[in-house]
Amino acid sequence: MHFLISIVLIIPLGYSVRFSTGLGIPLLQDIIGSLAYQVLLMLIASFFYPRASLVKIAVWVCVASCVGELLQLWQPPFLQSIRATWLGRIVLGNTFTLSDFPPYAVGSFLGWLGLKWLRQKMVHPFAA
């Protein structure tokens, strides 16, 4: 249940920061959005693989995100047609940005910390 609540909270947080104009600093919005995206992917992976090592989840999510970023350099027609949709743009992205790699690593680390905390709370919900 903790994972579902966390997922429900992180989605609007990440997208509201990334796509709002309130911060006025596009690079900061992109970084925070990337961090939230990594945490979301880790929450989803941990939800579907609850017994998996958190380190493995963090590494795989980071690697998958980096591969996804690199795939943005490849622009065959079938991927371009997917990226032309809103969902395709959100999931696959459409522009390769080298500066996205550090937030992927930091986001995976933050996701690891958060998941570690969540798992401890689930095992010992009344621990101080």
Topology readout:
Blueprint lengths: L1 H18 L6 H23 L5 H18 L5 H7 L2 H7 L8 H23 L5
Helix pairs in contact: 1-2, 2-3, 2-6, 3-6
Q: In total, how many beta strands?
A: 0
Described by strand count, sense and barrel closure, the largest sheet is:
none
The poorly predicted ranges are 124-128
Order of helices and strands: HHHHHH
Integer average pLDDT: 84
SS strand fraction: under 5%
Q: Into how many domains do the coordinates divide?
A: 1
Cα gyration radius (Å): 16 Å
Helix content: over 70%
Global structural class: mainly alpha
Overall geometric form: globular
Give the count of helical stretches.
6
End-to-end separation: 20 Å
Report on this model:
The chain is mainly α and 128 residues long. The chain has one domain. It has 6 helices and no strands. It has helices spanning 2-19, 26-48, 54-71, 77-83, 86-92, 101-123. The two termini are 20 Å apart.
Keywords:
128 residues; globular; mainly alpha; disordered C terminus; 6 helices
